Amino acid sequence: MAKTWILELDGEVVEVLPAGKFRVKLKDMEVIIMCYKAWKMKQSHISVIEWDWVKVEVNQYDMSQWRITYRYNPANHQSEDDE
Protein backbone atom coordinates (compact mmCIF):
# COMPACT_ATOMS: atom_id res chain seq x y z
CA MET A 1 0.00 0.00 0.00
CA ALA A 2 1.45 3.34 -1.04
CA LYS A 3 1.80 6.20 1.39
CA THR A 4 -0.77 8.71 0.30
CA TRP A 5 -0.03 11.58 2.66
CA ILE A 6 3.34 12.16 4.32
CA LEU A 7 4.69 15.28 5.94
CA GLU A 8 8.50 15.19 6.26
CA LEU A 9 10.47 17.83 8.16
CA ASP A 10 14.02 18.28 9.44
CA GLY A 11 14.84 18.83 13.06
CA GLU A 12 17.41 18.60 15.82
CA VAL A 13 17.26 16.16 18.74
CA VAL A 14 17.22 18.21 21.94
CA GLU A 15 16.52 15.48 24.50
CA VAL A 16 16.73 11.69 24.67
CA LEU A 17 13.98 10.17 26.80
CA PRO A 18 13.44 6.66 28.19
CA ALA A 19 11.67 3.96 26.16
CA GLY A 20 13.19 5.06 22.84
CA LYS A 21 11.50 8.46 22.69
CA PHE A 22 13.08 11.74 21.64
CA ARG A 23 12.21 15.44 21.80
CA VAL A 24 12.97 17.09 18.45
CA LYS A 25 12.97 20.82 17.68
CA LEU A 26 11.81 21.37 14.12
CA LYS A 27 14.04 23.42 11.86
CA ASP A 28 12.87 27.02 11.20
CA MET A 29 10.08 26.63 13.80
CA GLU A 30 9.85 27.00 17.54
CA VAL A 31 8.00 23.69 17.87
CA ILE A 32 9.23 20.74 19.93
CA ILE A 33 7.68 17.37 19.13
CA MET A 34 7.86 13.83 20.56
CA CYS A 35 9.35 11.20 18.25
CA TYR A 36 10.38 7.59 18.17
CA LYS A 37 12.72 5.73 15.80
CA ALA A 38 11.26 4.06 12.73
CA TRP A 39 11.46 0.28 12.52
CA LYS A 40 14.23 0.30 9.86
CA MET A 41 16.43 2.44 12.12
CA LYS A 42 15.87 0.08 15.06
CA GLN A 43 16.54 -2.94 12.86
CA SER A 44 19.80 -1.43 11.55
CA HIS A 45 20.91 -0.37 15.08
CA ILE A 46 21.29 3.28 14.09
CA SER A 47 21.88 5.31 17.23
CA VAL A 48 20.46 8.80 17.68
CA ILE A 49 22.03 11.05 20.28
CA GLU A 50 21.41 14.55 21.52
CA TRP A 51 22.09 17.36 18.99
CA ASP A 52 21.83 15.06 15.94
CA TRP A 53 20.03 16.40 12.87
CA VAL A 54 17.26 14.05 11.76
CA LYS A 55 14.41 13.78 9.26
CA VAL A 56 11.01 13.11 10.84
CA GLU A 57 7.65 12.21 9.36
CA VAL A 58 4.17 12.25 10.82
CA ASN A 59 2.29 9.07 11.63
CA GLN A 60 -0.84 8.91 9.48
CA TYR A 61 -2.96 7.47 12.27
CA ASP A 62 -1.85 9.59 15.23
CA MET A 63 -0.83 13.17 14.46
CA SER A 64 0.79 13.59 17.86
CA GLN A 65 3.36 10.84 17.22
CA TRP A 66 6.22 11.44 14.81
CA ARG A 67 8.91 8.98 13.75
CA ILE A 68 12.56 9.55 12.95
CA THR A 69 13.26 8.09 9.52
CA TYR A 70 16.77 9.35 8.78
CA ARG A 71 19.82 10.57 10.71
CA TYR A 72 22.01 13.01 8.79
CA ASN A 73 25.74 12.40 8.65
CA PRO A 74 27.33 14.98 11.00
CA ALA A 75 30.45 15.28 8.81
CA ASN A 76 28.42 16.35 5.76
CA HIS A 77 25.80 18.45 7.51
CA GLN A 78 26.52 22.15 8.04
CA SER A 79 25.10 23.76 11.12
CA GLU A 80 23.31 27.09 10.97
CA ASP A 81 26.23 28.76 12.79
CA ASP A 82 28.71 27.88 10.01
CA GLU A 83 26.79 29.78 7.33
Structural account:
With 83 residues, the protein is mainly β. The protein has one domain: Beta Barrel (OB fold (Dihydrolipoamide Acetyltransferase, E2P)). It is 6% helix and 41% strand. It is built from 1 helix and 5 strands, in the order E-E-E-H-E-E. The protein has one helix at 39-43; strands at 8-17, 21-26, 32-37, 53-58, 66-71. A 5-stranded mixed barrel has the order 1-2-3-5-4. Strand 1 and strand 2 form a beta hairpin. The N and C termini lie far apart (41 Å). The mean pLDDT is 86.
Task: Give a short summary of the structure.
This protein is mainly β. It has one helix at residues 39-43; strands at 8-17, 21-26, 32-37, 53-58, 66-71. It has a five-stranded mixed β-barrel.
List the helices and strands and how they pair.
Layout: E1 8-17, E2 21-26, E3 32-37, H1 39-43, E4 53-58, E5 66-71
Parallel strand pairs: 3-5
Antiparallel strand pairs: 1-2, 1-4, 2-3, 4-5
Remind me, CATH topology?
OB fold (Dihydrolipoamide Acetyltransferase, E2P)
The helix tally amounts to 1
Structural class designation = mainly beta
CATH class membership: Mainly Beta
- Overall mean pLDDT: 86
CATH superfamily: Nucleic acid-binding proteins
CATH architecture call: Beta Barrel
Distance between the termini: 41 Å
Number of beta strands: 5
Question: In order across it, which strands form the biggest sheet?
Answer: 1-2-3-5-4
In N-to-C order, the SSE pattern is EEEHEE
Q: Number of domains in the coordinates?
A: 1
Classify the beta-strand content into a percent band: 35-45%
Radius of gyration: 13 Å
Cα shape: globular
